[in-house]
Amino acid sequence: MNRKQEILNLARRLFAEKGYNGVSMRDIAESLRISVGNVTYYFKRKEELIEAIVLDMQKEYKPRPAPQTLGELAELIVHIQELQEQLAFYFGHRTQLAQVSAKINEIQIRMLRENKILWQRTFQNLSLAGLIKKEDYPHQYDHLCKALRMVTMYWSELSKLEAESFPEKVELKECVWGMVIPLLTDEGRKLYEREIAVKA
Amino acid sequence: MNRKQEILNLARRLFAEKGYNGVSMRDIAESLRISVGNVTYYFKRKEELIEAIVLDMQKEYKPRPAPQTLGELAELIVHIQELQEQLAFYFGHRTQLAQVSAKINEIQIRMLRENKILWQRTFQNLSLAGLIKKEDYPHQYDHLCKALRMVTMYWSELSKLEAESFPEKVELKECVWGMVIPLLTDEGRKLYEREIAVKA
């Protein structure tokens, strides 16, 4: 492994442990027992490091097909929750990172677009399958998709803020199902209770 | 008006126009035609300025009683949307501001707690008034409250990110009603259509 990759791997681990703002270029150099100059030879500023890490994350990312069943929706929700937990150093202050890096901002906008399409297709699929009710009024599900996107996007940020002072923990999946369950048809409800609720 | 208050008022106006990260101490000094040293005599760093502004906002803030009717809920939602728009320089990067100032972090946690109680009482009131259905399962409304808190808290942050690249605009009130309408009882639904939908 070359030095550059070594720095990236370590930075990612330190960010995950102490948060982006809790790690300095000096910390990274000291952990690798090299000089700060040796780090800045590869990455001039911490912003360049996080940019490279986010670009790597982006490469590993594969868009998921929109769920067609409640089981697939349950899998998607668990997947999002895991991502938010594993990459809390990123999702925990995504707004700040978009502000320090134009490239990260661009990636976030692209992900937002994909995310939007994913949720819209999910609602369409579940509607067609008779699992959720038809819209009560025009654009109802567009509005709900936006709410769902917000809940899934800002999960780590809010969790971080609440961690110290809110004793009871609501999980992401509870929040998302709390929004979806009221929309289920009778058939959807039966399937939910038989296949999802028992495992939750 | 004294110099200190003059600096605060101007900073607040500039932050509102250009965003917190778009304004430097120099910009503030130049707008007032005074020296940077004259500004830093009152506020050493920009962080102290935003802290003072947020503390002022906090003093003006009066907790609202929890809505007992759908009309009051509609008013609350409009009020939140207005706040988010007026104070976008604050709500648009609240996470970052909590990170630069321990006092702001503290205020945010206090507001989160009050917000949580506000939404919980709202659900209780509307349930008791027969306007929304009884919980389908334990804690359903706790989970929905958390989702509602996220949507109302992060509205400006997401709007800012989406502004340039998402043509269609979903309003905060559409998002919130999208989550509440599926919970309405038949009576709640009739009232909603007679009193709220026609004005929207």
UniProtKB/TrEMBL annotation, chains A, B:
Protein name, per record: Transcriptional regulator
GO molecular function, one term: transcription cis-regulatory region binding
PROSITE patterns, A to Z: HTH_TETR_2
InterPro entries, per database record: Homeodomain-like_sf, HTH-type_TetR-like_transc_reg, HTH_TetR, TetR
Entry keyword set: DNA-binding, Repressor, Transcription, Transcription regulation
Residue span, HTH tetR-type domain: 1-61
DNA-binding region range list: 24-43
